[in-house]
Amino acid sequence: MIARRKLAAVCAAAVIGGIATLGLAGPAAAAGRSYRTTIQNVGVHISEPEQWLNAGSAGWNYGPRARLRLESNGNLRVIDTRNNATKWESRTGGMGITQMKFQHDGNLVLYRANGSAPWATGTAFGQARGCDRAWGEQPVLALQDDSNVVVYCRYGEIIIGPGTPTGDVNYRAAWATNTRF
Asked: Which residues contact 89 (CB under 8 A, 6 or more apart)?
C-alpha cells in the first residue's frame, strides 16, 4: 500500500510538471505537491515539503540549463548542464550522506544512513531563517529558471487548480544558493 502511494505521488508530480528525473526504483521522489509559477518575473518550479533525492540519483533538472544533484559521494551540487560545471555545492562529499530531504518543517537537510544530519539550510520552523507559523508562512523549495535554488516562506491565500496556482500569494526568501547563470 505504501509503495502504491509513493508511486501515485511520483506519477502525480510528473503529470503536474514534476522536476525530478524519476524511475520506478525511486532514486528521487515526491510526496508533496509541486507546480509552476512566477516569482519576481522568474519562472519557478515550486515543491512543497516531503521531497527527496537519494545519493547517486539523476537529480532534478530545472530551468533551461541547471540540475540539482546529490552525488554518490554525498555532495549536493547545482550543475550547469551545458558543461557539467559546478556552480554551487554543499561540500559534504565523503561524509556518508545518502539522502537529501526537504522536510515538512522547511529545512533542507542532508542525511547519513544512520539518521544523523551533518548539513542543513537552517530554515526549520523556529530557526532564525525559518518560516513563521504564527504568520501563516509555509515552506516551499523553489527551483528557478535562472538556476537559483531557494527555500521560500509562502504566505497568503493559494488555490491550486488545474495548471498553475492562483490567489494572493507572497514569497519571502529564507535561504538560497545564489546561483544565477
From this structure: 75, 76, 77, 78
Distance of CA 166 to the CA centre of its chain: 21
User: What's the rounded mean pLDDT across residues 81-89?
Assistant: 95
> How many angstroms separate the CA atoms of 44 and 129, rounded?
21
> What element of type H or E holds 149?
strand 149-156
The rounded mean pLDDT for the chain is 82
Separation between Cα atoms, residue 119 and residue 170, nearest integer Å? 28
Residues 77/85, Cβ–Cβ less than 8 Å: no
pLDDT digit string (tens) for 49-65? 999 999 999 899 888 89
Cα 115 to Cα 62, 74, 96, 170: the distances in Å are 28, 14, 11, 34
Output 46 or 27, whichever has higher pLDDT: 46
Three-state DSSP state, 177: coil
Q: What are the distances in angstroms from CA 181 to CA 47, 65, 86, 88, 146?
A: 21, 8, 11, 11, 6
